[in-house]
Structure prediction request, 543 residues.
Amino acid sequence: MIQSRSFVRVGITSFGKGCAVAGDPGIYTRLASYHHWIRSIVNDNDVRPPISYTCDNTKVYCGCSLKNVELTPSRIVGGEEAVPYTWSFMVSLQHRSSNSHFCGGSIFSDSYILTAAHCVDDETPDRIQIVAGVHNRSDPNGVIREVDYIHIHPDWSSSSMERRHDIAMLHLSQPLGLASNPLLARICVPKVQWPNNVETYPSNGTRLAAIGWGNIKQDWTNNSPDNLHQVQVFAIDNNDPICNKSLFDTQVQFCAALYEGGKDTCQGDSGGPILQWLGDRWEQVGITSFGKGCAVKGDPGIYTRLAYYFDWMESITNAWSNTSTALPHVVYRCDRTSTCGCGQNDVTLLSSRIVGGEDAVEASWSMVVSLRFPEAFHQCGGTLLSESFILTAAYCVDNLSIGGEMNITVAVGMTNRFDPRQIIREVDRIYIHPNYSREARDYRNDIALLHVKTPFIYTNNPLLAKSCIHRIDPPELTIQHPRNGSRLAVIGWGFLKSIGSTIPEMLQQVQVYTIDHDHPACLDSIYDPQLQFCAGIIEGGKG
Prediction:
């Protein structure tokens, strides 16, 4: 193409049908689409001194360290050691018992550390410490803090290989003291207009820096360096073949690497930040999540896309800033034009995996019932299915008789099981699945329907609601419902502990997750995955 005083190459001859055939034009590679890629190869293979990213921490409140970052633009295999104290928001997650590094993290605020969920999903707070303000991870002068709460994203599932929502926040038992320590800094996080621009942030080709104390070779030996390392990579388009084969969810994950391989994050870097330069500060755009090997050509690193999680991160930190003891909750807004599945009030669940359950919000589970026998004593739970039917477990009622000494009553419309407003109905018929057998002890077909003598009246009674039941088509897909890793809520007036506990007065709720029926924790318990599924939290404490 001719410009004012020179020719500009705009294409590369690619292919065509014949040569100079009427109606069959030549096809050319559009060079404008490859400018960034060409420059990244040509410029970065030139021998040049490191680029210094000038940052003034007196003018910006985040993403700026004591010293300026220096990144070598040439593509040095495996990265390079960082200049000391240039990444002041980087922390090492360590086991308190051994002071051994196992993951990275970043300083979100004076009291919060951002990391990956898979780093901490089978840890307890008392086992973890963070070390900040160090270049050498064994530096005895580092700022050490204990962790008192672990907030894992509620949609994360440790039993899933997809690693969606691989993000967690750690609350420190004592603030870091950012204002008085020049070796510490907080990271900046993206505030993207959600949801339209989330999947393209960071944009394709963005130059990124990943940092950590992870392995610097892929030989599966412990070659984690003492000093902090940095590596320059580039964001890869979601639809690029090398990215598309590795990503599970483009809204919450992105790829970064070099096309030719040789630079990547590795074991021990998990949980650490990957950042982009904004001209005056560094912004963390992702969390190191996973990859197939390290620095392997054609297998990019996968990172948690932080732009998707701004509201969740704010909900965690805001809850703690409002009170020193209250834990953050998620409110589930219910569409009350629906004919089922909505209580009078919205359900509110703890957003973190705190051990045990919690009291339910008054009238938020209006479909739950208490089955009582004998003499009005709570024995089992159930749900309202229609005006006359209750859904429950077969093992609750399979040895009861109607009209004899063990009459069943159903109590509904209450959160406190002693609420005087509760509505009582007698059961006149029991329908147990014909293939259920208590003697088998495998609880296959553990389902029953109870018919009440007097129908419930839902009209003008907000304390009553029907439960929704989904029909799955085709039936072959029922084994996939609910999907592995689905967030679930279990509700009832059951015992709070296995031993030495009493039945609570208030309705309890607990958040758990579907576990793949091939997972060892499930295989040990389940008898028939077509009829049963597992749910809980792998590390226990809820169920």
Notes: The chain has a mean pLDDT of 80. The first helix runs from residue 35 to 45. Residues 90-180 form a domain with the Thrombin, subunit H fold (CATH 2.40.10.10).
